[in-house]
Amino acid sequence: MTGTAASLLERLAQLEGDGLAAIGNAGNGEALEDARVAYLGRNGVLADAMGAIGTVEPERRPAVGQRANAVKQALSVALEAASTALAAADADADHPTIDLTLPGRRTWRGGVHPVTRVIDEICEIFGDMGFTRVQGPEIETTWYNFTALNISLDHPAADMMDTFYLDDGVILRTHTSPMQARVMEASEPPVRVLVPGLAYRRDSFDPSHAPAFEQIEGLAVDEGVDFVEFRSAIQTFVRRFFGVDTKSRFRPSFYPFTEPSAEVDVTCSVCHGSGCSTCKRTGWITIMGSGMVDPAVFEAVGYDPERYTGYAFGMGPARIAMVRHGIPDMRLLYEGDTAFLEQFA
């Protein structure tokens, strides 16, 4: 039986209108899928209508076929648009609309940590004086950490109350000074090295102490190195790092691996020497321990103490960063507070 093109075209127009309405009224994914199956599915009404094209007068079949394809395209486009809209609505439900009355959030500007900046600057200054930057192991033996530095194992510094022991004779280094012995064992004079790195001690975490902290060890060894050269090197560092108006002083002290030994103080950057709580009303801040290398250290590493002399020093970059920036509490440098660190970016 042959149908008429007019009736099939009328049927396609009705089908298109009903299909678009069903898709538009679908309020959720399940309803939208039902509309797709009903109108565009393999056994849907459009497939049934397209199957009837073969009953149309032969000369009208191309026109009817084009119309059927146009209806299919219109329904497919509407289906895709509805699917996208429903997905966006679901996303908005999972993520509520932004409340524009809330205060804005500032973007964190990354920067170099103030302690890292201090380390790099110190290494650059001493690099201009011929010092080479080296690194050493954080897990050390008691021989390098104590014995080679003229520190006996019954010294309070080697006590388990102060040192992290990992095994018999193996510890977390308590200072970067062990690299003095390691460098001298591995090379002949002249030696000029700077050793930045982490050190570990059983200290409480308080405004002026931390159980893990950065330290910089310096060592210079050669023939004819004397206290005058040592003092000149330290004063050059102080002027370049803290400023030409900063005063420094050497106070007698004692360290097992240096003789004579001295602590180096600089005028307080907060009160400029007048006295404040930061410098404990003295007007001075200690920045390093230092001294001429003890001959016993040279003997431990095989250097001739009658031929060679040298000086060594150790400083805490965190403490120096506190002095430079007037930071009252060391813990601020370790807590990762971006609001605090951003001012140094």
Q: Can you offer a commentary on this structure?
A:
The protein is α+β, with helices and mostly antiparallel strands and 345 residues long. The protein has 2 domains: 90 residues; 231 residues, BirA Bifunctional Protein, domain 2. 40% of the residues lie in helices and 19% in strands. The chain contains 11 helices and 10 strands. The strands form 2 sheets. The protein has a 7-stranded mixed sheet with strand order 1-5-6-10-9-8-7, sandwiched between helices. Strand 7 and strand 8 form a beta hairpin. The radius of gyration is 40 Å and the shape is elongated. The chain starts with a helix and ends with a helix.
Give a topology summary.
Blueprint: H1 5-25, H2 29-40, H3 45-51, H4 61-94, H5 114-127, E1 132-133, E2 139-141, H6 142-145, E3 165-167, E4 170-172, H7 178-186, E5 191-200, E6 212-222, H8 227-242, E7 248-255, E8 258-267, E9 284-293, H9 295-301, E10 309-315, H10 317-325, H11 338-341
Parallel strand pairs: 1-5
Antiparallel strand pairs: 2-4, 3-4, 5-6, 6-10, 7-8, 8-9, 9-10
In short:
This protein has 345 residues and is of the alpha+beta class. The protein has eleven helices and ten strands.
